[in-house]
Amino acid sequence: MRRAHRTRQILNYANLSTPAGLLIGRLGGGRAVRHETGLVLVYGCRLIPPRAGAFTVGSVVMTKRPPEEDYLSGRLLAHEARHAWQWSGCVLVPLGAVLYLLALTASYVICGDPGSWNVFERMANLEDGGYARLAPWWSRT
């Protein structure tokens, strides 16, 4: 594991976001698999937001899909890894969750979509996460 990945892993354990992610994955009935980048991939988790294909809390990336589909790979895994870095910058889990919910709400207000104007999704690369870049409602004709 690269030093940067190990640093992210330590920070996310220290701020309790990874333990929270592991708890969510466990309560959702998922199966956890360690990834070479220090992420924990949880497959078959039933506690995923309805529209999300994947969801990251700390260094834990969760999906409803089974591991056989190899869903958590490529661009999507890179997108979710960026979210893991975002979590490493949060002092406490509730702060990260509140900030994300505020960004999600702002995006809904601006364009009616949870990701297009969500600063966290933009920083993680919208397209890699499967989000479209929608124009604000006031600039549509």
Provide a compact summary of the structure:
This protein has helices at 3-14, 17-27, 74-88, 93-111, 119-123, and strands spanning 31-34, 40-43, 55-57, 60-62. The chain is an alpha+beta fold. The chain has a 4-stranded mixed beta sheet, sandwiched between helices.
Structure write-up:
The chain contains five helices and four strands. The termini are far apart. It has 141 residues and is of the alpha+beta class. It has one domain. It has a four-stranded mixed β-sheet with strand order 1-2-4-3, with helices on both faces. Strand 1 and strand 2 form a beta hairpin. The mean pLDDT is 94. Helix 1 crosses helix 3. It is globular.
Output the keywords.
about 140 residues, alpha+beta, four-stranded mixed sheet, 4 strands
Task: Set out the fold topology.
Blueprint: H1 3-14, H2 17-27, E1 31-34, E2 40-43, E3 55-57, E4 60-62, H3 74-88, H4 93-111, H5 119-123
Parallel strand pairs: 2-4
Antiparallel strand pairs: 1-2, 3-4
Helix pairs in contact: 1-3
Shape: globular
Largest pleated sheet: 4 strands, mixed
Unreliable stretches covering 5 or more consecutive residues: none
In percent, how much strand structure appears in the residues?
5-15%
Q: Supply the number of structural domains.
A: 1
Helix content: 40-55%
Rg from alpha-carbon coordinates: 15 Å
Mean pLDDT: 94
Count of runs of 4 or more consecutive helical residues = 5
Structural class: alpha+beta
> What separation lies between the terminal Cα atoms?
49 Å
Total number of strands: 4
If strands are numbered along the chain, what order do they take across the biggest sheet?
1-2-4-3
